[in-house]
Every structure is written in structure tokens, then in C-alpha cells.
Amino acid sequence: ADDILKKNRATKFAVVVAEIKYFNYIVEHFGNEEADKLLKYLKVIYSKGIALDEIYGYYADGQFMLMLHYKEQRTLIERLDTFYGLARKHPAFKDDNYSLKLNFGVYEIDRNDAAVNVDSMLDKAIVAKNTMSPSGTEQLIKFYNTSLKEMYLQKADVEAKAEGALAGGEFVVFYQPKFDLVENTIAGCEALVRWYDPEKNIYRAPGTFLPVFE
User: Fold this and answer.
1) For residue 85, what are the CA distances in angstroms to 8, 82, 100, 101, 140?
2) Which of 125, 153, 149 is nearest to 57 (CA)?
3) How many CB atoms lie within 10 A of CB 200?
4) Which residues on adjacent β-strands are paired with residue 174?
5) Phi, psi (deg, nearest 5) at residue 138
6) What whole-number distance in Å separates Cα of residue 69 and Cα of residue 13?
């Protein structure tokens, strides 16, 4: 991937994570042999579908990685739709009335970001794939964007600092009273965790770090 990017400096590329949804269900329900047949079927689709100076590979857990060049987002979406249409023709699950589904996460490579390497490109494509749309609806193809960048940086910051923060006692418990309106008295409390960030002199709210820990 690095060699291709260096050789084609004026070309727009995108890193794509193509995931078989509920792959573990397929393994459990249909067996390893059928799951392997599906992976080989998709391997043929991707290998025949990529062009010169593009690359693909298998990652894990039903996820393929692709690096594709394109001129505009619309044509990239059309290619991924084509991959999806071919994948759904896989014959193995027809008798079981199982509809194969794929998810795509896309990171459009920013050539101006000198710090971006192939590993972080894949990370960003995975972040896009795993992100639910604002409306809560399923989306076939999701692109990494500015709001996802903020989420990605926040997640990376939490992961990088979590162990040191645990060792340093930066997690603080607050007790929020529960008031009994009938008896007119405090009847207990709820324990709430906050993360004190000494660098910024603020408490991080649970929503910024608990999802990462979970």
C-alpha cells in the first residue's frame, strides 16, 4: 500500500473496510466450511474487481481491506454497490432464506496529513464502518468525516491515557442523593464516576470514556 501511494502521488485513493455483517452468526449457524466458502467467493469478487495499482487483503472476522483509486465520491460508491450486488448472489444461503449483508467504512486518504500511515488509515475506515448514522438507521457505506475525526481523536486520547489515569487515581466517585418525596428525606444515593484530567483541570464526563472502556 505504501509503495502504491508513493508511486501515484497525484491520484486520489480511499481505504475501504468491507465487512460481512454478522459473520460470527454465519460461522455458528452454517459452519466453518460454509463460512470459508463465502470468504473465498468474496476473494474472487475483490480480486477481479480491483484495477492496476489497487490492492486488497483479508483482515479478520469477515473483514476485507481494499485500497481503491477514484476521481469522485459518486464513482467510488457505485463500485462498492457493485461489489455488494455481486456478494449477494452468493448461492450457499438461498435455501435458508438468509440475506447476506455487507458494511463498508471508507477513509478518503488525505495526502496533506504527513502523520497518516496505512495502519491509521485502516483505523479510520473501521471507525467509519462502526459508526451509527445520526438518524439511527443502517447505512451500507459510511465515510470518515470531520465529526468522526473528533471522535477518533477522543477515542485515541482515552486509550492512550487510560492506564496512567487508573494508576494515578484520576477516577473519582461522586454520590448523587436520591430523595424520597413521601418521607421527605434522603433515601440513598447513586454512585457516579468522573475522570479528573489534571492537564486540562476538568472532569471528563462518562460519555467521553465509558464507551471506549466498554
Assistant:
1) 29, 5, 10, 10, 12
2) 125
3) 8
4) 192
5) -75, 140
6) 4
Strand, coil or helix: what is 100? Answer: coil
> What are the two backbone dihedrals, phi and then psi, of residue 203, each rounded to the nearest 5 degrees?
-100, 125
Query: Under a CB-based contact definition with an 8 Å cutoff, are residues 129 and 14 in contact?
Result: no
Count CB neighbours of 63 within 10 A: 19
178: cell is 436520591
pTM of the entire structure? Answer: 0.71
Cα angle 61, 66, 69; round to 5: 165
Alpha-helix runs per DSSP H in the chain: 2-7, 23-30, 32-49, 73-87, 118-130, 146-167, 210-213
Residues 188 and 191: their CA atoms lie apart, in Å, by: 10
Beta carbons of 18 and 104 less than 8 angstroms apart: yes
Burial of 144 (0-12, 13-18, 19+ CB in 10 A): buried
Per-residue pLDDT for the chain (214 aa), expressed as one digit of tens each?
Answer: 999 999 998 899 999 999 999 999 999 999 999 999 999 999 999 999 999 999 999 999 999 999 999 999 999 999 999 999 999 898 877 667 788 899 999 999 988 876 678 888 998 899 889 876 554 455 689 998 877 777 777 888 888 899 999 999 999 999 999 999 999 999 999 999 999 989 889 998 888 888 888 8
